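Pasting as-is:
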Amino acid sequence: MDNFQTWPIGFIRSGLTHVKDAPKFYNEGAPAAIIEILPAFADGLYKMQAGDEIIVITWLHQGNRNVLKVHPRGNAANPLTGVFLTRSPDRPNPVGLHRAKVLSISGATLHIDAIEAIDGTPVIDIKPVLATNDN
């Protein structure tokens, strides 16, 4: 199997400091946060503006990479399910996807609305939310 590398383009700065305190999803009480983009990648923010909706792709660095089945939402009453059908941070490649809205931009710092990622989480990419005709 071929290996490949990824590296952070920035980091989440949040009042959430422990995984146990993070909500399971952004709309369940997650706080606003900041994304500090590393200087080498700051030009990637060109034309981004307040109001843009983005997908923040993170590396869930505290996830357990040896897990293939979980009880969804950490609730043992839920049937055991393969991680690829869940949003569990515990998975072979702990990639997180987070939809957020840009509140403001100051230099290479993005102020975003609710995100369930904890302080220090590496950001590996940012993508725009694209409009669709889906209902």
